[in-house]
Amino acid sequence: MSENLSTDPTKIALITGASRGLGAALAEGLAARGWHILAVARTTGALEELDDRIRKAGGSATLAPMDVTNPEAMIQMVKAVMGRWGGVDLWAHTAIHAAPLSPAGHIDPRDFAKSVDLNLTATSGLIALIEPLLRGRNGRGLFFDDPRAGQKFFGSYAATKGAQIALARSWQAENAQLGPQIEIATPAPMPTALRARFFPGEDRAGLAAPRDEAERILTALYGD
User: CA dihedral in degrees (118, 190, 47, 90; nearest 10)?
Assistant: First the structure.
């Protein structure tokens, strides 16, 4: 992990899928609030661009160009975070695989396997690894619902995204009294690369900006 650390950051946010879209917008919004950002994503260049924007605005970040589907890499990351900070105050999980739209009877097995691997299996593994980090600082987990069940051609995405949220809701219920507190937000449609895969060529004028959605979600969680 490469670092640009503030002296003693008050709050630590771990964002998986931080390089673009809502993940990047959350990172910038939290950094503007004085949080230190642990940004995890596979795309090094996009992470570096995020870091440049955060630093230009006076914030700080640690970059972790890693694949969340690699259990060994995630174990090492969590050990490093625990050793450096003792935990995190927020884990926002925005990493997702958007399989191409397809009739249910024609879903590519490789795409479906990748959807299961990232959207469900990796999420389950991350919950187990990150739960101690959240408990170490009385933190929160944050997931993002995108209900597509029953919509034509969304079978691969809807099944695995829905399963991810079902897992998050169970984790939420299990920790309702002792924590960590688990939140599930439903963002408005945004002009992200993920949405462009589903709706190529759509008029994006009426879509919500990721930065605006990030601010709305963060204000609901933490106030202004």
Answer: -70
pLDDT tens column, 149-177: 999 999 999 999 999 999 999 999 999 99
pTM of this prediction? 0.93
User: Mind giving me the DSSP string for 67-133?
Assistant: -TT-HHHHHHHHHHHHHHHSS-SEEEE-----PPP--GGG--HHHHHHHIIIIIIHHHHHHHHHHHH
- Distance between CA atoms of 97 and 74, rounded to whole angstroms? 18
What's the token pair of residue 81?
């975070």
Mean pLDDT (whole number) for 115-126: 98
Q: Which of 122, 110, 108 is nearest to 164 (CA)?
A: 122
Domain boundaries 2-219, CATH class: alpha beta
Q: Within 10 A of 170 (CB to CB), how many other CB atoms are there? A: 12
Q: What span, in angstroms and rounded, lies between the C-alpha atoms of 139 and 132?
A: 10
Residue ranges per structural domain of the chain: 2-219
| Amino acid in position 188 | A
Secondary structure element (H or E) that encloses residue 219, with its range:
helix 210-222
All residues at 6 or more sequence positions from 146 whose CB lies less than 8 Å from its CB, including other chains = 161, 186, 187
Q: How big is the chain, counted in residues?
A: 224
Radius of gyration of the chain (CA): 17
C-alpha count within 13 angstroms, C-beta hemisphere, residue 220: 13
- CA-CA-CA-CA torsion for 33, 50, 36, 13, nearest 10 degrees? 90
Q: How far is CA 2 from CA 60, 65, 115, in A?
A: 11, 9, 29
Max distance between CA atoms of the chain, in angstroms, equals 55
